[in-house]
Amino acid sequence: MVCGGFTCSKNALCSLNVVYMMVGLLLIGVAAWGKGFGIVSSIHIIGGVIAVGVFLLLIAIVGLIAKGQCYTCGNVMLEHSAEALKILGGVGLFFSFTEILGVWLAVRYRNQKDPRANPSAFL
Length: 123
Prior knowledge:
This is Tetraspanin 31. With about 120 residues, the protein is mainly alpha-helical.
């Protein structure tokens, strides 16, 4: 088995999720320690750091729970991405035509003479 295969990637992701769990716990602990010893007095800062720590901890736990089940869904993803690309192509084509219309209107507006302007003025 060479590194870079499925097993190596799976183990690397599990290790990364464990590191993220430790970082999340560290954020929560440091924020609580800072508030407990009165180092940081702003409850907004403490709440923000604890919220980030909890969010990171939850994402890491979900990542560890999901590496246990591996289903190949490449075909489903390809079908979905092909459908999404068709929709995005149509939307892009629609907006490109509206941009061409905008350029045409801008050129038309630029070449019109202002009826309120002085007729003896150069522009």
